[in-house]
Q: What sequence folds into this?
């Protein structure tokens, strides 16, 4: 079962999400929180695999809570930011905070369920508009950020860089293994090593860094 925590200050939204996810036989809502601080506190007690996190909440907002939670390393839950504020700036901030996904609240129920499953597998869960925002952000990046990203990626082995490039293209671990003729376990090992060397929390942040390093046309 995929254990999910719902963090939103609107009880009606939490109820709707709980009913939506309740229709999936492989997903269980284990806790709810009305603000980011309570969400962070609930993680230790309920050990969720995935958090659906609103951005605008009292006490501690969703971005601050995501930053706090992703510091837990391999034991950290995957955070999907789910918000009515589909702004490009927020997409990039959420990804840099360590979120594994970004969805607008008007996303179709079946797509939210699919996103939870992807996040639980360690794969990115982005709405089409969020994906476009990341692409535009990477394309418009300043030269100093690009140079920093290239210096960071230089820390990786050639194989780790190949894995990073494939991650930036949106490939799953299985697809990366097929492209590079590697076993799934080897792909995961290279990915984990790259994240550790770069002090990153997840593959979305690795994809951002890789996009930043690419030459501007």
A:
């Amino acid at each position: 079962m995929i254990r999910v925590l719902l963090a939103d200050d609107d009880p009606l939204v939490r109820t709707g999400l709980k009913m939506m996810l309740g229709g999936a036989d492989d997903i269980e809502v284990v806790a709810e929180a009305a603000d980011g601080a309570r969400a962070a506190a609930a993680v230790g007690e309920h050990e969720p695999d995935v958090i659906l996190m609103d951005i605008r909440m009292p006490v501690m907002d969703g971005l601050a809570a995501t930053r706090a939670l992703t510091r837990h390393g391999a034991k950290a839950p995957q955070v999907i930011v789910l918000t009515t504020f589909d702004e490009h700036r927020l997409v990039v901030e959420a990804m840099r905070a360590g979120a594994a996904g970004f969805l607008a609240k008007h996303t179709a129920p079946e797509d939210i369920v699919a996103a939870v499953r992807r996040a639980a597998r360690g794969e990115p869960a982005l709405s089409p508009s969020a994906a476009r925002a990341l692409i535009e952000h990477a394309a418009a990046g300043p030269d100093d950020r690009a140079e920093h990203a290239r210096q960071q990626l230089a820390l990786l082995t050639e194989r780790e860089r190949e894995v990073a490039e494939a991650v930036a293209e949106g490939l799953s671990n299985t697809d990366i293994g097929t492209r590079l003729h590697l076993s799934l376990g080897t792909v995961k090992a290279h990915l984990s090593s790259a994240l550790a060397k770069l002090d990153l929390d997840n593959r979305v942040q690795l994809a951002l860094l890789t996009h930043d390093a690419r030459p501007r046309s």
User: Anything to note?
Assistant: Strands lie at 2-7, 27-33, 50-53, 78-83, 101-104, 125-126.
